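Sequence only, no structure available. Ideas?
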Amino acid sequence: MHAEVLFVAGYAATLLAASAGLHRLGRVNTSPWRGRVLAGHRRALGEHGRGQHPTRSDWPHSEVPHLHTGIALVAVVAAILLAVAELARHHRPPEVLLLGTVAATAAATATLLTGRLRAPRTSKSVRQ
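Reply:
I predicted one. Tokens follow.
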């Protein structure tokens, strides 16, 4: 097997791992009112002061999961393009098997991430 094929397959797999991390990072709640930083302030305000602060569904916090998923999708598309371009250059059976596996995994990941981007935005998509 050619070293270039191994490098591209490893690089594409690294891009897939990075896209999974980016997608997961988008599920973290970015609202400063939900974190521990302002816990004392929330305690001091009590229940009647809650109406003054933005909720989780307010912009820009509602867009964070979609932003990270979109960036992850770019990495997945790059992995697909790398694998397909390398398949055009090297097409011995072991190389086709390795690059085909990487490309199929990337295509499945792209389908999953595209579905997540098209899903309706809910407040449950962000962890508390």
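The chain is about 65% helix and 0% strand.
Hope that gets you unstuck.
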